[in-house]
Amino acid sequence: MGEFKVHRVRFFDYMPSGIRALAFNRDIERIAVARMDGSVEVFHCSDRFFQEKIIPGREQCGIEGLSWVGERLFSAGLNGGITEYDLTNQKVKYTVDAYGGPIWTIAGNQQGTHLAVGCEDGTVKLFEVNEDKIQFERNLDRQKSRIISLSWHPSGSKIAAGMMDMIQIFNVETGHSVHRLLADRGVGTSRSKECVVWSVVYLSDGTIISGDSVGMVKLWDDQTGTLIKSHNVTKCDVITSYLIVPLEWQNEDSLVAGTSEGTVVQFQFISMVLGKDDKEWVRTRTFKNHTHDIRAVAEITTAVVSGGMDAQLVVRPLLDKVEVRSAASALRKIHFPHRRLVSCARKSGLMLFQYPGHLELWRLGESEGKGSSLFVKRNPEKLLHLKVKGEDHIRCSAVSPCGEWIVYSTASSLRLYRLHCDNNNVSITKISKLPMVLSSANQLCFSSDSSHLFSASTQSSVHLVSLSQSGCKFVGTLKPKSGSHQAIHLLAASEDGKWLASANSDHEVHIYNLQTRKAHCTVPVYSSAVTAMGIHPTTNCLFMMYADQQMCEYSIEQKQYTDWSRMVQRKGLHRFWMERDTPCLNVMFNPQHPSHVILHDTYMLCIIDQSLPLPDDKTQFYNQLTLKSLPEEQRKSHSHAFKVCKTFKDILCVELMSDQSLVVVERPLEDVASQLPAPIKQKKFAT
Amino acid sequence: MVETSDIRVVRCGGSKVNLTPPIISSDSRFVLCTSGDLVKVYSTRTEEWLHSLQGHTNQVTGITLNPANHLQVYSCSVDGTVKLWDFIDGILIKTFVIGCPLFAIYVSEKHTGVLFLHVSMATDSKNECFQLVSVHLPKSAEQEVEAKEMSAVSSHISKNPSCTAFGRGSVSETCMSMVIFISFFSLCSFSLKATDKKGAKNAFTCIACHPTDDCIATGHEDGKIRLWRNFIHKKEYTYSTQHWHHNAVNTLCFTPEGTHLLSGGIESVLVQWQYGADNRKEFLPRLGGSILHISASSDGQLFCTSHSDNKITVIESSFKVCGVIQGLVKGDAVLTDLMIDPRSKALVLNGKPGHLQFYSLLRDKHLYNLDIVQQEYIYEAGLDQFEVVKAAFDIKGSWLATVEERGKKSSDLEFFLKLWAFDERTQSFVLNTTITAAHTDRIISMCFSSSEETTMLVTAAEDSQFKAWCQGADADTQQDQNFWSCDFVGSYHKLNPTNCSFSADSSLLAVSFQEVITIWSPDTWEMLTTLCQPPGVIRDLCFGRLSCSKYLLGTTTKNLLCCWNLLTCELEWSTSVDVSKLQPDPFSENVAAFSYQSKHTDLFVFKPSEPRPLFTNKNVCSEKVHRAVFVPREEPLNSCDESTQWLNRSQLYFLTQNMDLLTFSTATEEDRMLSSSKQLVIDDSVAVTPFYLLLGKHRQQQQKLNTQSHPVSDKPQQTQGSVTIKELLHTPAHVLPAASVLCSMFVNSFLISNTGETLQEEMDSEKEEEDSEEEMEACDSQQELRAQGSVDEVTPKLSKAQERELKRVRKTDFSWMAGLIDSKP
User: Molecular function terms in GO for this entry (chain A) (predicted)?
Assistant: First the structure.
């Protein structure tokens, strides 16, 4: 199968940021995730939870709440502003200050007409949602303490607001408080501490469900303002404050609550006597998939999604809601973004690591000797630490294959640097006069000979910039003939500099001829998002990986799928291949073996040999060990196209360098876990 | 099982009370539990055994209250019958003959007249395959009814009664991997499979149904409890999990109101979960053995837990233990022989770890535990701890010798020989001597000499020696207390001894060394003779008693039973029987031999003087019998039948490998019991009025007195007394004279019999006055014996006896004095 020298890179200290809020939009089946660093991500629930959109955050921008209004996404944070996002171009659309101090919560009504925010100063502010902006309408009665949580009654006529030690019910018409529900404080030492009502849910039958810092989920009746039932969800012997974070309900028969111990508790509205209608809320299942506090939970149609301080998004399927058990409905933990954070200068052995606020450039080490582990002759070396100017976080970055150019873009600016590297002296110069079109980019890519920079811009267009010693020059803009204006998230340039492929969030893949600077063709749109693609250096075929683990090969010259691709579609892929739960993040080609395609996802590295037969469901998929045991002549008949290597774990990036060595960037989850703050102390059984 | 006409094997006394869940009567006054062939009724307040429901001829396997009448109870048995009892009076009301062995019984309140029973599916008993059937009880006035209308409900269910539960008109069971829920309304059944994760032990172990809600609780092997809800819908069932037990949950029980769930397991901690608020739970720890069953009374005030150490604990709803009903403790194995304490006539054997238990078979009551090892027992699997392996009483019951050892599996054996003296003051055994290195290897056999004057202990050990131990003042210490010390060490050709036994008069000691039996004189320690009958190592050895004391019996491993005549030192007779246990009756010449052949045990009872057995019982049980004992009867039977004569003076109990204590009962015994219960049935026709109760009690007392002391003389008076009362009761009220007049008459009617008795007693004492002094002594000794015989029930009876004696002494004194005064002048 071929041997590679592998650089096993573990010095990329990428830390995923903790999840702060979740919002699920049932109509478009998207879930929005707000992280601690202010970034907002949109996942496509029915497309294997592919991370479709990433809107990078800013410094000092703590998002506290997310809310969908129709297909528009709003967030509110402790900086006191309400932000609407432009999901097409994946950036912030505008921010409106609520003038009420830090905002703790945001909630839109079901009618889609109003947004309510709860502020530090004790006001609930109503905003009218207009066509293109939001407009402040009025305040509800001002309360003494801050508003922590809000929930609209489905009719839109009442709002329940969780505060310190109490819950208020407001009539939206009059703006006056209708009821005041007092939440009990904890017993013992926590008696003196205020009880924070972290979340409320207002059901259509008038039941209000609240989760508070004492560790209780309480059910209230809004007519009488009385407590109906309370469930103790967390244990009482922990002294730190409990968080029961967003209760989230669905169809009003199921409700989930996350706790600070990392458990998600499900409550169900069940008839106690079968066949009768008197239903009760009963605590049923408990899921424990987190190590740290859960800061946000959401119940989507078939699963419970939770996220917290440990920065992983956990999708726990509810098997009673799933029609057919398949890989799409399996337990899923999303640790890393579905974008590449590493770019490699293939010809000069440099690596660029993208952190939210800075870039790091490393030179790979060198080794000598032979064997399974090589002696390191020269250690890898950090050449550069480039801090971002301004408050915005980096959206994308790239290093040219020759290693001379570094480019990155934030939401507001794009910067291009030229790297001078003579022996141990590294210096960079900023290219000052950039063309006007290069103000911001969604994706950046260099041509293989480093002579051109491709910058994906708004309206799915790609700007073409030629680079030279003197500076850069805007060459032209590539625009698709038709189609959507969604932001481009993937760019792939061919080795011979003739073709460029772009993929956008509407699953469209456009191919441009760089010589004529015209759109060449469009690959037929598939239902799943493209997660990785690459153009073959010799055949100029575009190889695409999709989020549902399908693969396609499209011949650019003939403008049609290749025979191999058609065969794959006809025969279908192996069950084990389809059941993997992370998308492929990179497609590479080995110039020495033109029939080989190298792929990787978070857990494995795979080489597809297009000359070998495809495995069917009966054949053994992971057959390397069996092949090893077989004699040479029998191997041929048993081998199939997929060669899977599971030596590496938690892979962020794999790249084939031009000297035939592989760079594997790993970020072990144990390292991530060790850098997290200590979880709330928890008594383990039998200790 | 019954082969000979009127003797059959019964489970009577010392049976398991923890086989099935105990039930509490609806007024919380009684606890009912199965115990062998009986159903026993205990009081919840005093823990006393009140009476037992007797009538089944095999193991009772299930009891349940009659939902239509809370004073009645159904019981089912392996003998294939379901019986309906009035458990307060112990009256058998009805018998339903089902016809196949029954293993559990359930009733459902929704289905009157229907019983649910576990029956074996396959005829082969090894193949544990059971099904649940419902049986319609035919309405009939007869006492014995055949119920043949059966319909299967579900098949392939677990034998454990914890695995089936009845809820609100539905039944659910667990098999190893799934719950089957059957609703009788919709007649649908489906299964919930345990999610079989790799390595997770979540097989179902028990199940309980909520009384009002549609909620099923299941216990799992890994200690989790799951509450299943919404299970009618195929997929939308849901469950919540609770976890406290670290090992398998043995049993689950909802309280009748449904507010709490009780669970128990090997931790012997009763856990009470609040239904609905799952985190709140209460614990009742340190209950003894692991909890096997839990049941709650119908008003929820009392709980009962049965434990693996054959115990039932009665617990108040406030989680306070208010009573313990202790049965015969049976560990994994009984290492000591079954013995009879000569003083209390109690059965003595291994009990709690490191203890000897004293168990009264007559009253079927656990008396007390004697701590032999006197070390803390640590409950941990695989820990090698001291166990009592041998124990022996001397003939008067004033000395007890015990051997405890540990390190049986490992090479370093450690053992102690302890001698215990009976302390009259505390009425228990007190440690007298501990001998740390009695032998250099394990003690194989141990016996006391049976003479009255000197007590001597002989121990035979694997170091090819036997030692005689005597009590005597230690020369070194010169103390008042008499300790035991070694008197003689004997050996024979460096052979390992296998057995030792004293003859009935202690004039001879027989010690067997492999194939050779040596006879020694304990007085001179001279070896008198050797007896040898190869091949085969001697397994059991015993001397004949009474008229047969000249015979010595021995069994060998090569299936030979030999009888030697000690006068001629020759083999009298021998026969080829594989005897696993040879047990002589201390009160007669009879010897019982259990032989194990082709998977069943036969019993032979014979006299050593003749090789023909007095009594044979083939197929006593299917297991090997290694322990047996003759227990003296309180009052001898006077059966004349030849085959039952050997049971006249004592009863033979034996222990099977399944730890079942079995005995033999004769037809006459059963007749007597039946007749007493039948009389109760006739009495039942009288309406229960306060008068009846007064009268009935009175009459019963009289009857007791009749049977005990004066069978003939009292009868006419008694009837006379009751005639007055009857007259009084049957006369219409308006014809009766004033109550003040009647009162004295009524009270007098009670007194009549009493005066008769006292008269009788006076007459007796007058008779005794005339008796000679010798008889007086005999009488005294008898009373002494009686006093000794009841060590446990100490003072009140003693004082009564003393009082009577005092009275008599006083009277005799007077007459003597008068005689003296008369003769003086």
Answer: RNA binding
- Phi-psi sector, B352: left (phi>0), alpha (psi -120 to 50), beta: beta
Provide the 3-class DSSP secondary structure of residue A481: coil
Give residue-wise pLDDT tens across range B757-801.
444 444 444 444 444 444 444 444 444 444 444 444 444 455 666
Calculate the alpha carbon distances from A253 to A233, A299, B387, B675 in Å. 18, 11, 60, 66
Quickly tell me which residue has 């306070």 as its tokens.
B320
Coil vs helix vs strand at A403: coil
Residue B75's closest CA among B61, B86, B87? B61
Task: Write out the H or E segment, with its range, that includes residue B285.
Answer: none
Query: What is the rounded CA–CA span in Å between residue A175 and residue B130?
Result: 68
A139: tokens are 């305040």
Interchain CB distance below 8 Å, A268 and B239: no
Residue B608 makes CB contacts below 8 A (sequence gap 6+) with B544, B548, B551, B553, B563, B572, B589, B591
Continuous segment of H or E residues that includes residue B716: helix B715-730
Q: Which residue in A259, A267, A282, A286 has the most chain B C-beta atoms within 10 A of its own C-beta, making it the best mutation to test that interface?
A: A282
DSSP notation for B752-799: HHHHHHHHHHHHHHHHHHHS-HHHHHHHHHHHHHHHHH-SSS-HHHHH
Q: What is Dmax (Cα atoms) for chain A?
A: 85
Strand partners of residue B360: B365
User: One-letter amino acid identity for B583?
Assistant: Q
Nearest to A443 by CA among A363, A391, A500: A500
ipTM attached to this prediction: 0.77
Give ∠ CA B282-B283-B288 in degrees, rounded to 5.
Answer: 160
Q: What is the mean pLDDT of residues A591-617?
A: 89
Q: Residue B585 and residue B636: Cα distance in Å, rounded?
A: 14
Using omega within 30 degrees of 0 as the cis cutoff, is the peptide bond preceding B636 cis? no
Q: Which of A310, A249, A325, A324 is nearest to A24 (CA)?
A: A249
Q: What is the DSSP string of B605-671?
A: EE-TT-SSEEEEEEEEESS-EEEEEEEE-SS------TTTGGGSSEEEEEEETT--EEEEEEHHHHH
Is the distance from CB of B546 to CB of B558 less than 8 angstroms? Answer: no
Q: What is the pLDDT of residues A270-291, one digit of tens each?
A: 887 776 778 888 888 888 888 8
- Say what the pTM is: 0.75
**CA-based nearest distance A190→chain B, Å:** 19
Count of Cβ atoms closer than 10 Å to residue B115 Cβ? 26
Q: Which residues of chain B approach chain A closer than 8 Å at the C-beta? A: 168, 183, 185, 212-215, 229-232, 235-241, 243, 246, 276-280
* Cβ distance of A272 and B215 shorter than 8 Å: yes
Strands (E), B407-514: 414-423, 428-435, 443-448, 456-461, 465-472, 483-490, 497-502, 509-513
Please tell me the distance from the alpha carbon of residue A227 to that of residue A212, in angstroms, as a whole number: 14
- Angle subtended by helix axes B715-730 and B690-708, to nearest 10: 170
